[in-house]
Amino acid sequence: MKALVYLGPGRRAWQDAPIPAIREATDVIVRVDAVTICGTDLHILNGDVPAVQSGTTLGHEAVGTVFDAGAAVSGLAVGDKVLVSCISACGRCRFCRTGSFGQCLGGGGWVLGHRIDGTQAEYVRVPFADTSTYPLPDGVADENALMLADILPTSYEVGVLKGRVGPGSTVVVVGAGPIGLAAITAARLFSPNRIIAIDPAQSRLDAARRFGADTVLGADGGASRTVTDLTGGLGADVAIEAVGVPETFELCTRLVRPGGHVANVGVHGRPATLHLEDLWDRNVTITTGLVDTYSTPTLLSLIATGRLDTSPFITHRFALDEMEEAYSVFSHPQDTGALKVVLSRR
């Protein structure tokens, strides 16, 4: 088969690789029918995730068809169409038993495309299949379900729920890339009073408006003053960081009101300064998190009933063997306007 293999910082290749085989009785082998690229994959290629070893197949999001199943797999059969979650869960450890699947101690967590070979290939081995895949409801298209492998559950759980977005909230989303747009989409489910999006790229501000932001602001240094004016001097109830660089995290801490929440969603590769000299007396709550994907069944049901539409995220489509071209388009959104790319088996 072919796979997109990480060869060290700045290096990747779409090359021959062995078709994976069942290793544990709880594994399935999934034939990949649709896959996407994540900003985290770009962080890996930049060298920001040193745990990823050279020779690893990248990717942690896919929809596919069960090709083979281990003897202990009880909830799936060969031929079933499934969503492969970005998080694997043993289902037995202390964290899995409380729904914190991202912190799995039993060999799961974020492993695909990180500690084991991932989904940007023609076939992928998925561990703990019964608790790490989700059967697709009837009528849900592959590419629409694919948006629930990572970005929607991540923004929903780590941004909106941890940030405690609620009816009447003022929400600021810093960064209007796919994760930021997913945060806007998820926040709208809770009827906030106002959503403000901040990004330096006009194309992404335009996208933020399409996704439901009420106000869009460029990152030109005037955001703090504008947010203060829009909120009667208070600041945002919730500031969601959706980029993963020190400057955007620190901006969020300046935009939030006393007693408000900063929900960090972005993947950080460099240290950020925590200005406790400004924050210590403001009762600000700061949360971080790796997605657990406990919300995936809920989000799938919202797609199946027409309450959630993920199709606007998809801006470019490719064949699976056009992986290199897809990476080039996705990694230059300022030139291509890319949000999410989908590569499908044809």
How would you summarize the topology of this molecule?
Blueprint (H helix, E strand, L loop, with lengths): L1 E5 L5 E5 L11 E9 L2 H7 L16 E8 L11 E4 L38 E4 L2 H4 E3 L6 H5 L4 H11 L8 E5 L3 H11 L5 E5 L3 H10 L3 E3 L5 H8 L5 E6 L4 H10 E9 L11 H4 L5 E3 L8 H9 L9 E6 L3 H8 L2 H4 L3 E5 L2
Parallel strand pairs: 8-9, 8-11, 9-10, 11-12, 12-13, 14-15
Antiparallel strand pairs: 1-2, 3-4, 3-6, 3-15, 4-5, 5-7
Helix pairs in contact: 4-5
Would you give an account of this structure?
Its cofactor is Zn(2+). The protein is an alpha/beta fold and 346 residues long. The protein contains twelve helices and 15 strands. It folds into two domains: 2-150 and 292-344, Alpha-Beta Complex (Quinone Oxidoreductase, Chain A, domain 1), CATH 3.90.180; 153-287, NAD(P)-binding Rossmann-like Domain (Rossmann fold), CATH 3.40.50. It is 26% helix and 23% strand. The strands form three sheets. Strands 3, 4, 5, 6, 7, 14 and 15 form a seven-stranded mixed beta sheet that branches. The protein has a six-stranded parallel beta sheet with strand order 10-9-8-11-12-13, with helices on both faces. Helix 6 links the parallel strand 9 and strand 10. Helix 4 (151-161) crosses helix 5.
